[in-house]
Design goal:
Blueprint lengths: L1 E4 L15 E2 L7 H24 L1 H14 L3 E2 L16 E6 L3 E4 L10 E8 L4 E4 L4 E4 L4 E5 L6 E3 L6 E8 L2 H6 L10 H7 L3 H13 L1
Helix pairs in contact: 1-2, 4-5
Length: 210
């Protein structure tokens, strides 16, 4: 099965900047809220990994989630948007389903999706067709991918039970609350985050020559 959860998104065919943001019906479900509460510490951990790997993406996601607090239309007695534990604006739970080759609509090119492969005993593979790469997608694997840019797919697999938590950011939601797209990561960003100023300068010089 597949379930999409979001604290703020546009209703279908109502995606103009002046249209209101609404919470998904699944977000207010009691069982979903219980699950999100149980996942909050884990989501904070994944937020921290995102901050280390893609700082500008983390800042953009954090800013957008902060902004939607006061700009989302919520029904009476609905769950507050402030309880959302992730810096990503949406979460898709995919259980025991293959995913055909596709690119993700609704993202910005520089928005990374965070895919977390979970389950028991499966031997799934994440295929990135544009790179001709097949990656190990066994339980416990985390993958950041520019899903708008790179065509990708998953499955089939032979053994076990598989589910994936696919974290994503909606470009139009970010636009609605005035948050700019983050820049693409480059090699110099990683070198800088590792604290190697000398290597950082060399990488910058090489990029200028190119």
């Amino acid at each position: 099965g597949r379930l999409t959860i979001s604290p703020a998104y546009f209703m279908q065919s109502h995606e103009r900047l002046q249209d209101p943001l609404v919470i998904s019906a699944s977000y207010s479900n009691k069982q979903v809220q219980h699950w999100l509460d149980a996942m909050s510490n884990t989501e904070c951990f994944w937020n921290g990994i995102t901050a280390a790997i893609a700082p500008e993406l983390f800042e953009a996601g954090s800013a957008a989630i902060s902004e939607v607090y006061g700009k989302t239309r919520t029904p009476p007695k609905s769950v507050p948007v402030s309880k959302w534990p992730s810096i990503f604006s949406g979460l898709e739970v995919i259980v025991n389903r293959t995913t055909p080759p596709h690119r993700d609509c609704g993202r910005a090119p520089s928005h990374y999706d965070l895919l977390v492969s979970l389950g028991i005993g499966h031997d799934a593979t994440l295929s990135i067709q544009d790179l001709r790469a097949d990656l190990n997608y066994s339980p416990g694997t985390m993958c950041f991918i520019c899903g708008k840019v790179l065509e990708h797919s998953a499955g089939p697999w032979e053994n076990g039970e598989r589910f994936v938590l696919a974290h994503f950011m909606k470009d139009k939601v970010h636009g609605r609350v005035g948050v700019a797209r983050p820049a693409f990561l480059v090699q110099a960003d990683f070198l800088h985050s590792l604290g190697s100023e000398e290597m950082h300068c060399k990488a910058k010089k090489q990029s200028r020559r190119m």
